[in-house]
Amino acid sequence: MTKSIVCMQHLSSGQQELIRAAAPGYTLTLGDSRNPDLELLSGAEIIIGWGKGVSDTLLRQDSPLRWVQAWSAGVEKLPLEAMKERGILLTNASGVHAEPITAVIFSFMLMFTRNMHTAIRNQQNRRWHSDGQESELTGKTAVIAGTGSIGSETARIAKAFRMKTIGVSRSGRAAQGFDKVFTTGQLKDSVSEADFIINTLPITDETQGLFDADIFSAAKQGAYYINIGRGATTNTDDLISALNSGQLAGAGLDVFETEPLPEDHPLWGMEQVIMTPHCAGATDRYADRIVDIFTRNMKAYLESGSPSLNLVDYSRQY
């Protein structure tokens, strides 16, 4: 009997062929996450992506669903408890974002060290000016919260700038590219060394509001804060206070507690803040990379009954 894979995102014909070649005995059908076909989904063993209003269909008691490949690295918006109870395998898109997000992180850091954000404003006002405060990344210290694919790629590139790299992770285990690694419980100690505090963390019960006044007050005076992980890992009011007091010299933000950021939010008017609209991970190579993860996982799934890459631990929520 033919089994069913449904992808809720657009795939090119070449990407579809790669999946079909990796999944003999399965059909592949494209769905629409914005307007899901519940009848189509009701017979799926494997889902790539997710859609609004599909939970009741996919998580019913007699559903054939066995594996969900999320379209994002973060999985906090999925019905994790229900999926765990049903024994559904969940893999995420970790690794897809490393290159584009690392580029955004260094865009923020280079703009701050070279005062490019003020240069752009001066250009718009036809003003020829430098305050003489330009610096460089060489010799600076980056404290990177999260030593996964994004954090590791950021550390690797930082070494090309001859920076010192300090990681922060749940385990505190040594990781390639990092001079040393602290545990999350040592975050307050680690930020005291940072010229740049870089937050790449997912949102979990443990990371909710982790970056708050206590952490910012422990930071080196004049450090910069960069968040490309999840907005809810940061107490925004505490961040604004640290920026206004000068404890933090600036912030590069791609994610926010409320998205879209309200038009009257004070962050919009802060000249020491650079913002992007949660697009740090966007790239024209996104689908190619997810298909690569999926096809490699499909091989493992056919051989052992379980994908081998990016398998989410429900107890950790990532």
Automatic annotation (TrEMBL):
Q: List the protein's name.
A: 2-hydroxyacid dehydrogenase
Name the Pfam families on file. Answer: 2-Hacid_dh, 2-Hacid_dh_C
The text of the family note is:
Belongs to the D-isomer specific 2-hydroxyacid dehydrogenase family.
Q: Where is the D-isomer specific 2-hydroxyacid dehydrogenase NAD-binding domain?
A: 107-280
Q: Which residues form a coiled coil?
A: none
Keyword Oxidoreductase among record annotations: yes
Organism, by scientific name, is Paenibacillus borealis
Classification of source organism: Bacteria, Bacillati, Bacillota, Bacilli, Bacillales
Instruction: Report domain D-isomer specific 2-hydroxyacid dehydrogenase catalytic positions.
Output: 12-307
Q: Which PANTHER family match?
A: 2-HACID_DH_C DOMAIN-CONTAINING PROTEIN, D-ISOMER SPECIFIC 2-HYDROXYACID DEHYDROGENASE NAD-BINDING DOMAIN-CONTAINING PROTEIN
